[in-house]
């Protein structure tokens, strides 16, 4: 069929849908056949000429609507007939059927997402280094502040102090890790949308891989 062109003007309206032809001859013949459109000069770029003669300014000068011209043209009728022909299934043919939405099982999707997220985080050296250094710093700080606190059991308040120190450490590290991982998750979200649309995996295995990777990284 050769090269085909789908040309639209501002607003998403079609002004040419059809073959280009040798050296864009069919495109040129179509627009030159419209009353008032200037002919292309010898050696002029057909793409540049096409954009110039179909601009909104030229529409106002000529007093024509290229979308309406195309809709009432024989080319538009032929394209519609071709679309209808290609849209009709052949006699005796059956619709495509897939037993599941995804080609792999749920377990395989989980393992693949876990492997992917694991390497994704390990390859992000700045993020991993910052988390490692910050966790080490927080461990030394809290360890120094609450040194030997767990061995003090002289009164009822001492166990509460020990529990409170552990609570503060866990909450502080949790909030810091959650805030630092947000930029990484924001970047991964674009990848997830693309791969989920391609049918590679569903949202649940991806979430499992994200949470498991973060848990493993935090424990490391």
Give your account of this protein's structure.
It comes from Ilex paraguariensis (yerba mate). Pfam families: ABC2_membrane (PF01061). Residues 108-212 form the ABC-2 type transporter transmembrane domain. The structure is a single chain. With 220 residues, the protein is mainly alpha-helical. It is 64% helix and 6% strand. The protein has nine helices and two strands, in the order E-E-H-H-H-H-H-H-H-H-H. Strands 1-2 form a two-stranded antiparallel sheet. Strand 1 (4-9) and strand 2 (13-19) form a beta hairpin. Helix 6 (106-123) packs across helix 9 (203-219) and helix 7 (125-145) packs antiparallel against helix 8 (157-197). The mean pLDDT is 81.
Describe the protein's topology.
Blueprint: E1 4-9, E2 13-19, H1 25-32, H2 46-53, H3 56-62, H4 66-71, H5 74-87, H6 106-123, H7 125-145, H8 157-197, H9 203-219
Antiparallel strand pairs: 1-2
Helix pairs in contact: 6-9, 7-8
In short:
This protein is mainly α.
Overall pLDDT metric: 81
Largest sheet geometry = 2 strands, antiparallel
Which stretches are low in confidence, meaning pLDDT under 50 for 5 or more residues running? none
Strand order of the largest sheet: 1-2
Structural class: mainly alpha
Spatial extent as radius of gyration: 33 Å
Number of strands: 2
Order of H and E elements = EEHHHHHHHHH
Amount of beta strand: 5-15%
- Roughly how much helix do the residues carry, as a percent range? 55-70%
What is the general shape? elongated
- Give the termini distance in whole angstroms: 59 Å
Total number of helical segments?
9
